[in-house]
Input
Amino acid sequence: MLKSYCSIFLRAVFLFMAGISFGQIEEVDPPNDIKTITFGGQKASNILPIINLNERIYLEFDVLNNLEEDFYYVIEHFDYDWTPSRLMKSEYLDGMDNLRIFNYENSFNTYQIYSHYRLQIPNPQTRLKVSGNYLIKIFDENDDLVFSRKFMIMEQQVGVGVQIKRSRNVTLINETQSVDFSIKSNSLNLNNPAQTVKTVVVQNNNLKTAIYDLKPQYILGNELVYRYNEASLFWGGNEYLFFENKEVRSANLGVQFIDLQDLYHSYLYTDIDRSTRKYTFNPDINGGFKITVLDRDDPSIEADYTYVHFSLITNEFLDASVHVYGGYNNFSINDENKMNFNPEKGIYELQMLMKQGFYNYKYVIVDQNDTLSEGSISGNFDETENNYKVIVYYRDLGARYDKIIGLGEANSVQITN
Output
């Protein structure tokens, strides 16, 4: 017991020092044997993990072995910019964390053996008391950090109106989308809003490309108005590509043919560079994914894993890497989704292990400076359908943490001049 308390104390000290040293916290990607992480306010969700205070949020993931390992969760509170908040754990959490995840099931009738873990917050041992930014960390039985995910708790106290506009910069009008928004408070007095109100603008549920801390340009009574020319501008991108392999024994949507080896292999149709082509509407779910399987009752444990083969015809990028990008791995860039150029075929190729389902994806490049470009292969178009969310934070004068007091949402389908 003493060893356990010492371990918790040392971990807390280390994480506190890490927060001081590195500032904004970044999510930790899981190892290769942990896949299909879903996290949100509804089961099997892959949308932005933001819920109202006292609502439930669900975390689920697969571990691709038959060891039935033990995993533990720790929850931490952060300010609007993902730097550690001043709150003690007892101030934002009722009960305790650093507890084992007890709810798991083993896969049934699948070639790939795995265990499916589920956690919901709040639960009988853990309840969150305040709104704001949170990070959940998953540790293994050796006290090693396995992965982490950001989420947000809000208490809706203001109205947030969002409109998507075409760029006011004519040189970018065909490639970008601008987010105008306003914050209206009828009951909450927003003192000194230029300092106390913070905002985060999110495109397609991807926190990695969010725009932080826009200041109100106008204050009209109880309304704050944000109408920037450049600061709230996003690249329009292009619609995501997609495939579905809910049936592993035959070709599905976007799958050219299949092959059974140790596991099933799904070979997708070869994609092309879309950056120089005209925009074509192609309905998508903005980078998301959904686990589905044909003729099974419970996809969480009955969907199998298959090797999905991606291929792309484009010019070779000698000074940059090409990656398959999407919400399936939290929009991360790593070696697992890095493509290799096949000089004999003149195409980029990638084989990736994925659970049966419906997936959105696109091809992006990352240069030698680690700068990601979504449009270099897919193109950027102002007509692209994108989802935008505006999160509003408030820290009153003398307060010690950033509350989330509002959430607004709009879609670029309603884009106007």
